[in-house]
Amino acid sequence: MIKWIVLAVLVLCALYVHFRGRERHKFLRQITDHSTFMAPINVLMYAFSRVPRTPYLQVADFPELENLRSNWQTIRDEAIALAKASQIKASDQFNDAGFQSFFRTGWKRYYLKWYDDAPHPSALKACPRTVEILKGSPNIKAAAFTQLPPGSNLGKHRDPFAGSLRYHLGLITPNDDRCWIRVDGKPYSWRDGEGVVFDETYIHWAANETDQDRIILFCDLERPMKYRWATALNHAVARTLLAAGSSPNQEGDRTGGVNKIFKYAYAIRHVGKKLKNRNRKLYYAAKWSIFAIILAAIFVPWRML
To answer: Domain range spanning residue 248?
Structure first.
């Protein structure tokens, strides 16, 4: 009985996530998307959020972000130095599970911190002023410089956890509407020295259709919650699941547990991609058979098998 209650809660929460907003994944993609499995936790985050649950939020509602905006030129200078040294880059190893698919379409990153009180040692050495400025905004749990070169794009996706909100601060941008992000279908174009806050668990996608680079400060800002227990739950999930996604810039930086095993999981995925290229019907038959076996193992009593 408990298993079926758990399954019912998961299905209802997943349906809420799927139909939330105007943009939706195709149903079969949504079934295996990480937002389906995170749905029960995320529904709690939405229900007890102290800020609006809209695709975009007002930057003015987060006063601590003014600390970053007012120092944007200092932050930009360190980002420029990193870009010139080719340090804002795609991972050259299979140690960034969260963003691995983005690298294929041109997106690049340099992590400053990732759900840890301490910054990456590499960032502390290369970007000391930015690291110091970030200390003045304690509700920022993760930060990175991200680059979207001319002609690159990010496909439609949801981020996994609703306990955070995304903040983008324009550093080096084309200042052009052809360099854009759409959150639940609503467009925003980056501008130098300007910021935007949005809910990254809505479907969003981006592209740089100009001939100029785009570099921003990318931050995960803790979602304010109504109650202490909801805040405590938010912290607990961030310290376990999100921190496990930490990825290094270079040797000596922290690598989270998820990324320590990702190279092995990616090897299995690579075999699956080869099969998909050779025989799509066989690939999907195998994929859904494995999924059905896992569900049966969880919810069907062994004596019935």
So the answer is: 56-255
CA gap 133, 297 in Å, rounded = 49
Shared domain for 239 and 291, answered yes or no, is no
- Does the residue 9 lie in any domain? no
Over range 10-33, report the average pLDDT: 92
- 98 or 286, which is more confident: 98
Does residue 39 lie within any of the structural domains? no
More reliable by pLDDT, 41 or 101: 41
Q: How many domains does the chain have?
A: 2
Q: Are residues 207 and 281 in the same domain?
A: no
Q: What is the mean pLDDT of residues 29-35?
A: 89
pLDDT for position 298: 60
